[in-house]
Amino acid sequence: MGQLHMKNILIFSSAYLPFVGGAEVALTEITKRLSADFNFTLITYRFNKEHPETEMIDGVKVHRLGYGTKLDRFFLFPFLAYLKGREIFKHEKVDLLWGMMVSYASIGAYLLKILKPNLPFLLTLQEGDSERHLKRGKLGLLGFWWRRMLKKANYIQAISAYLADYAVKQGARQKIAIIPNGVALANFDKISNERDREKTRKFLNLLDSDKVIMTSSRLVTKNAVDILIRSLKFLGPSYVLLVAGTGVQEEQLKNLAEELDIEEQVLFLGQVPQSELFEYLAISSVFSRPSRSEGLGNSFLEAMAVGVPVVGTKQGGIPDFLKDGETGLFCKVDDPEDLASKIRKLSENDELRNKIIFQSRKLVRERYSWGLIALHMKGVFTELIADEKPKIVFASGTYSPEIGGMATFVKKIAGGLTLKGFQVSVLAYGKTGSIERNPFPVQLVSRSGGFLLRYLKYFLALRKTVKKSDLIYAQDLVSSGFPAALVSLFSGKKLIIRLGGDFLWEQMVERGKVNCTLKEYYTLPKSFVEKLYLAIYRFVLKRAELIIFNNSYQPELYNQVFGKNINFQKIVFNPISKKAKTSRAVFDGDIVYFGRFIKVKNLKVLIKAFGRLKTKKKLVLVGEGPGRIRLERLVEKLSLRDRVQFKKAVPRVRVFEIMQKNSLVVIPTLTELNPNVALEALSVGTPVLLTKENGLPREVKDELQLFNPLSESELFEKLEFFLDKKNYQKYESKLRRLKYKQTWDSVVTEHIKVFENIL
């Protein structure tokens, strides 16, 4: 594997040149473009004894193993590949294992990964078979190896969104990059001349009136060439089908054409070299493959590059590039009549045909050139074998798709760090199976059982996760922070805690034990249970190398209460996720609240204060929570049913829309440590009335109208202030000059500095 200054990649592929398929073409096109950047060695099966055991092909050193029999291919080859890899390890430093598909060859890479667990393993998914086959094929062994390899691979490259989604369904939790196969534009994106087209038509004995349909594929069940042949009965004798490819169904398909008495309309071309496909595509009116399953469908892309409109099904990876009416037409699965109607539509509607040809050629040029694909793969290789960044475990109480600031923060920051090359994993509480696709591993711990059992399960899962990590980043003091502090104690791993709430105070308010601000709470006498929780607080705070606060309120308070237990601290304010443009506020609009219906939010005081106003405006409460019924009863008791509206929680985009249509956003919380809603409202130009017990940056807080959350009268006076149009416009004008520049990128950058200093 040659030059010392270049990284060495060991590839495992069940087949390679001279055999030509999607995977083999991908390997060839990528390696020949990146041979100046990496040394490639490839292990493959020796199908024929005439093929040399070792040779160089376009800069790739190829080792062929086996004796050319089915027995050794299926049972012996994976172990031969493993042994060959071990032999190579003795002579060369291998920087990356690359398995092409879940295949016999990739089993060898899997076994070597067990031998060398710190060696990065990239798995490429190119499969085009049905999910049933992927799960149960080879007597269930295929599904078995899928699960094993997805668990062992450090990184997955899928050629379509369909394969990426399927990998997640099968348990993949690592980073997945969707990088499709490409098209050799030099072979396909060119203009054919009339003379060459006439020559090809004459070679095939085609009439001038014949309209040519083409397909190129393996002749197997999944590619549904039988449906394409049957469609000719609905198209008539003026259509001719060219079939490029061979396979186990070839004789069966020829017999079908005879049975339907259309054998003269179906021309079987056999295996056509890629360099010659252009000649047949150039005379074709339509390309179609009505697939029953499909990983991506490179033949479609090649046809699109030539300028031949395509018809396909919505199976597998086809929707990645085929947009109905834009870059092709969809047909139904196993429906020859519907397929025929779509082929006829493309043949006869010149306006649609020309539109699709233009759009599809543009798409292929912009997204599917092998040069671009190779560049993306170079990025993957570089990321995997670059000097390692710190490995960080996020310990969180919740994670997406659950709603909440903590879940959003973890997903955004973990994703941002991953893009910067950090190795990130997430452990959170949640429902198993509810994880979205992520570029990093995510593990969920069930909330079932009592809190002691829940914390024990979390502790054991985290202890296992941190074995290969450098740092634990916990997102609270109790649900994730306490187990994280114990793991840190036993493992010696460094711990950082991020705080933006106070679990104990919130619980006491919700249970009706107290009704006070957070600062006042810490002046009150404590019960035995509260003292126990405060002991946990002190243990976790003392164990942490650093406390990151997302607000300006908690640091001062916690330094007073827990000062001697806090080593170092830093404030990193949350960013704004702005989704809409700033607009002029609507004075005639209603007054709105966004958030949970819980006691801490102090909505009882807001409803009572609003009820005293003499205005036609309504109070709109948007959210959900256990306190809704109690609040509805209060509204009924105060005879405010016509003036106070309850609305269910809405997606973030709708939040911004509602803000812009109304006059004022009110946040009456007893203590609002990190009022993101206030910042979001300001970002779109809507005035805010906020509790004075908040953790906003001083430069923002000083410009806002604030009130004592425990004083109904003070809140009433502030609301009345906003009913005066002059007051309202003056306040709105002042707020429009307010700037808050914190972004997700800046928060990620601040975290990188923190982690690098700690480690």
TrEMBL record:
Gene Ontology molecular function: any one: glycosyltransferase activity
InterPro entries the UniProt entry points to: Glyco_trans_1, Glyco_trans_4-like_N, Glycosyltransferase_grp1
Domain (Glycosyl transferase family): residue spans on this chain: 196-362, 590-730
SUPFAM superfamilies: UDP-Glycosyltransferase/glycogen phosphorylase
UniProt-listed CDD domains: GT4_PimA-like (cd03801)
Signal peptide boundaries: none
Pfam family, one: Glyco_transf_4
Domain of life: Bacteria
Domain Glycosyltransferase subfamily 4-like N-terminal: 20-185, 403-562
Protein name: Glycosyltransferase
Organism whose genome encodes this protein: Candidatus Doudnabacteria bacterium CG10_big_fil_rev_8_21_14_0_10_41_10
